[in-house]
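User: I'm curious whether this sequence folds into something compact or stays loose and floppy. Could you predict its structure so I can see for myself?
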Amino acid sequence: MSQAGSQDRLRIDKWLWHARVVKTRSLAAKLVADGHVRLNGTRTDSPAKAVKAGDVLTIALERTVRVYRVLALGDRRGPASEAQTLYEDLSPEPPGRLAVT
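Assistant: Here's the prediction. I'll summarize afterward.
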């Protein structure tokens, strides 16, 4: 694979780590391997599966489901402000709480 070709895709576990969805890459790999991640609507259990810009990831976390459109791959795990530029959050709004008066 050429250098240019390697820059248009990234392992899903590495992307989840770069985007700060999880704290460690090994946790990202476990999340994928345990079947908690869907890539473009299809469940995947391979942490080595490649993602590219435009892909949609649905991630089942402990108490919530997050939906992200991949905008960029990232070269490193940077600060949170940098990580937020890697995706567009398409997650549904959480159900509202009852107002207490």
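Summary: Confidence is low (pLDDT under 50) at residues 1-5. The CA atoms of residues 70 and 87 lie 5 Å apart.
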